[in-house]
Amino acid sequence: MTDQAAPSPAALVADLVDLLDVEEIDTDLYRGRRSRDGVGRVFGGQVIAQALQAAQRSTEAPKQAHSLHAYFMRAGDEQHPIIYRVVRDFEGRSFATRRVIAMQRGQPILNMAASFQVPEEGFHHQAEMPEVPAPETLESEAAIRARESVHVDERFRANLLRARPIEIRPVYPRKWFKPQPTEPVQHSWFRVSAAIGDDAAVHRAVLAYASDMALLGTSMLPHGVNWTSPGLQSASLDHALWLHEPFRADEWLLYACDSTWAGHARGFNRGQIFTQDGQLVASVAQEGLIRMRAPRPKAD
Questions:
Q1: Catalytic (active site) residue 149
Q2: Which of 16, 163, 242, 293 is the most exposed place for a label (fewest CB within 10 A)?
Q3: Mean pLDDT calculated for residue range 61-87
Q4: What CA–CA distances, in Å, run from 258 to 17, 255, 269, 285, 300?
Q5: Rounded distance, CA 268 to CA 247, Å?
Q6: Are the CB atoms for 83 and 31 separated by under 8 Å?
Q7: Does 104 qualify as catalytic in the annotation?
Q8: Which DSSP category does 293 fall into?
Q9: Among 163, 42, 52, 72, which Cα is nearest to 113's?
Q10: Would you say residue 2 has pLDDT above 50?
């Protein structure tokens, strides 16, 4: 039996854009498509992006999303669609505010508040982009995963090696299966691997999706653990994203992450997203669960 050919980058990206879209099923009520990743638990970035799309659908131009704040309550299940209820809390001349409740099987899995603004001019300053190698000079995470896959259990290898629509090139390649304590800093270039058109709302949704990648792991770096470490339980608890400037998610963006604190089974992480020419286009903050569980006692 021969292996199926891997999907093309264009097909992978088209599937991602379709996944992050939402279907309107009634006024301010939307349904998100199920992921077919086959990992069981829904990726948190998917829920954030679909919730943002629902909020964007309820808001008329020229207002644009400039921030969102989300709390995760339950893990999503890939076997079921997600329903998004939008509440229009405020509609002003300059700003609008939306609340979104993501529901699955009758229970909320995420609450999100999003704010929209009519674009206007104002004072400007920004942080400087870290000095890092250009993405063209770095190895892709896909190549690193392929090399490291020999160390992973056969049960998890297919998921590790599956083709992904977002190309990542880490500045500091992660040691997936033999983590050592390092500084709580990690920078990565990322982009979707094919063009996604000119709809700015789609680019914002893709960035919201990608902003949940790698961030939580930053707070684990000083402790020499990651998702492969036996007994580690990790999950996003809340996620905040501020959108500063226009950008394209199909062009290289630098995700510069650091962690300023961890304690009480939680880790706090920050991220800044820059274009390749150094413009700061988004900022991110997230707190997540990082808990080490004691090994279960062996049965007699």
A1: no
A2: 293
A3: 96
A4: 28, 10, 6, 10, 44
A5: 26
A6: yes
A7: no
A8: P
A9: 52
A10: no
